[in-house]
Amino acid sequence: MLDAIQRRAFSFFRHETNRANGLVRDKTRVDWPASIASVGLALTAHPVGVERGFVTRADAAERTLTTLRFFWQSKQGPGSDATGYQGFYYHFLDMQTGARTWQCELSTVDTALLLGLGSSTHPLPVESYQAWMSTYRWMTIYDTQFLYAGPLFTHQLSQVWIDFRGIQDGFMRERGIDYFENSRRATLMQQQYAIRNPRGHARYGESCWGITASDGPGEITCAVNDVERRFFNYLARGVPDGPDDGTIAPWAVVASLPFAPEIVLPTLEYFCELHLSDVHPYGFKATFNPTFPVAGGSPLGWVSPWHFGINQGPIVVMIENHRSGLVWRLTRECLPIVMGLRAVPRVVLKKEVA
Length: 354
Prior knowledge:
- With 354 residues, this protein is of the alpha+beta class.
- Helices cover 37% and strands 10% of the residues.
- It is built from twelve helices and twelve strands.
- A two-stranded antiparallel ribbon has the order 1-4. The chain has a two-stranded antiparallel sheet with strand order 2-3. Strands 5-6 form a two-stranded antiparallel sheet.
- A hairpin with a 2-residue loop joins strand 2 and strand 3 (88-89).
- The longest helix has 18 residues, at 179-196.
């Protein structure tokens, strides 16, 4: 099952990439632009594809070099024809030219997830990390204590690249856990929320959960079985406080595989039994909403018509991290990231990183 899910997710990057410049479509909608996030996840997925035999090493190397050369030579500036500005890149880029699309923002998170602390020339001050931690909320939900964030992706994305087992900053050391354990607790809380199902959504349960930033059926309010419900478009959905309109994201479950395989694997088997990926070339569609009423009364309700690169990448990489730790091992050899971790105030690093 994991072989099939991983292979089909990887094929997104094979077919939704412009071979001339390495740009990767953000989602499969016709004429949709690339995103710097999709590009980064494609670069991360290439080594996995080589290891699993999905692509030859030569082809993966060619695609990687094409992408890096394009960004190295791309125009920088504040104008609409630029790809980036002062080393950062705009979030959405024209698939053909690489020019900024929709006057979108510079994407700082998608350019550098570890804060710039490890820069050899312009490192961020340590106070920036302390300011980041000042926003933390330690909460107890369903008898579980953890650093809270509602959408599940918040507990996953940095750990696509970094293995936080045994790495503690001051905040986590005071609470006796690390960020890996925190993400495990957040994953278990998601399942418990679905079992309790306080909003009475269809199909929620032990093997049907996964609530995160995701595509949705639209900005619609309507009565469903005599209950007035409000539905949303793309939104950062979260639990237990919401927003939650019954939209489930299978990819977010896959991305939790390293943290809680004992509940993720049965959930993926259930999703396969629902035939959520049978006719889709890239596997699971981004989201489905069994609560949303559709013509014909499909048991799946509304199903997103799209695939997103930012969903497909974590599927490929987190399956591999669970199975072999490949990307985690490669990241440990990245000196700027190691230096960034060392710069975190009061951090304790495990032996492999230190």
